[in-house]
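Structure (tokenized):
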């Protein structure tokens, strides 16, 4: 597709849109809706959310889609509601019940019991992902195998739960806790719900999940799809996205020209992935240092 979209409408400027994803939509559904809203097919997303989850979903528009695979989204925060007393096939409210606890066993659980089990699931832990996760098994997603009727057993993997704080406890109409979870990428909050219920001997599953932050992007910048329909604008321009998500190496005019042409330039001396920008703050590339020079991962402003 050319730079002109359908009906000779100009392509939107590149950048990021932080969407407040609604319940019941897949991340792919949101991408499809955003293509209509923004008037371009060059839309992608980072940090997938399950259909039942709401909250922060990072959407790339036009050239900013090239940023998505390089964003440091390795720390995520959630508000979760965990139901105790039943386990399910999916570890959340959308699955079929596997076990149902005896009411007397539920009544015997104390706040101290819950807090100890939560503490045991905090820090560096080994977690078995949910069987309906996106983890690949022999090249196929685990959830696809489960839907096909196969039994899936996944290996435990190391994850970090930086915070797992109980915010509220309700006993009516069922035993539920609200919690704040701050965790590393690859952590499954519904697996935390499953394991919390198992530790208490009554079963548990996730009943609601809202992502409040992913990497440097939070709900403060997020907008609903309805708001975006009314005002289809970016949350961050391409330049703002780079300065928000990366350390930035500012270069002079001669070096900026070399970057635009993909020519070798000196190393920035910055750890990890960083942005390169000219003196006016225009984003030129994403790079890492390799020896004494910069290795371009993406050139955002080619000559």
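Design, position by position:
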């Amino acid at each position: 597709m050319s730079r002109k979209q359908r009906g000779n409408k100009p392509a939107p400027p590149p950048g990021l849109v932080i969407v407040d994803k609604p319940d019941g939509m897949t991340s792919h559904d949101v991408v499809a809706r955003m293509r209509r809203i923004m008037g371009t097919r060059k839309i992608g997303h980072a940090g997938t959310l399950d259909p039942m989850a709401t909250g922060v979903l990072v959407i790339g528009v036009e050239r900013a889609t090239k940023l998505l695979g390089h964003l440091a989204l390795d720390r995520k925060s959630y508000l979760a509601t965990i139901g105790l007393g039943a386990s399910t096939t999916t570890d959340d409210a959308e699955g079929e019940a596997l076990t149902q606890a005896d009411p007397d066993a539920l009544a015997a659980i104390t706040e101290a019991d819950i807090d100890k089990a939560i503490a045991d699931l905090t820090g560096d832990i080994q977690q078995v992902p949910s069987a309906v996760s996106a983890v690949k098994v022999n090249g196929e997603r685990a959830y696809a195998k489960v839907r096909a009727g196969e039994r899936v057993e996944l290996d435990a993997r190391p994850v970090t739960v930086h915070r797992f704080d109980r915010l509220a406890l309700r006993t009516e109409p069922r035993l539920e806790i609200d919690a704040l979870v701050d965790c590393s990428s690859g952590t499954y909050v519904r697996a935390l719900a499953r394991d919390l219920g198992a530790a208490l001997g009554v079963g548990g599953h996730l009943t609601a999940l809202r992502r409040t932050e992913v990497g440097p992007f939070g709900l403060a910048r997020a907008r609903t799809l309805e708001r975006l329909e009314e005002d289809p604008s970016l949350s961050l321009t391409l330049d703002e996205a780079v300065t928000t998500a990366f350390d930035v190496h500012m270069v002079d005019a001669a070096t900026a020209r070399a970057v635009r042409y993909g020519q070798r330039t000196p190393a920035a001396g910055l750890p990890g992935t960083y942005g390169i920008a000219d003196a006016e703050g225009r984003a030129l590339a994403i790079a890492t240092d390799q020896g004494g020079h910069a290795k371009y991962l993406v050139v955002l402003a080619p000559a």
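Reviewer-requested clarification: The chain is about 20% helix and 35% strand. Confidence is low (pLDDT under 50) at residues 1-6.
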